[in-house]
Amino acid sequence: MSVFFVISTSEIVDQQRYDEYTRLARPIVERHGGEYLIQSDKLIASKDWQTKKIVIIKFASKEQLDQCFQSEEYREIIPLREGSIVSRFVMVES
Questions:
Q1: Which residue ranges make up each domain of the chain?
Q2: 60 with 6: CB under 8 angstroms?
Q3: DSSP 8-state assignment for residue 2
Q4: Which fold has domain 3-93?
Q5: What is the pTM of this model?
């Protein structure tokens, strides 16, 4: 069963910090088996959904996703994400 991690970013508060976060996050995600399926700011959202960017990452299992985002190396970069964007996420199992 695959798991999809969908991130909707509604605001980028600090582009430089966000760029640093994404530069560091991608190899961590990929080392844990995550596959970036979509990263785009070219979207049309409904009137009540304020989003500027969507990222979809596929993992083979929820356990793999949990290992990634609970890893020490990922936890070290969380402060870069927390101060740089306003976002929401959802995990979808198939």
A1: 3-93
A2: no
A3: -
A4: Alpha-Beta Plaits (3.30.70)
A5: 0.91
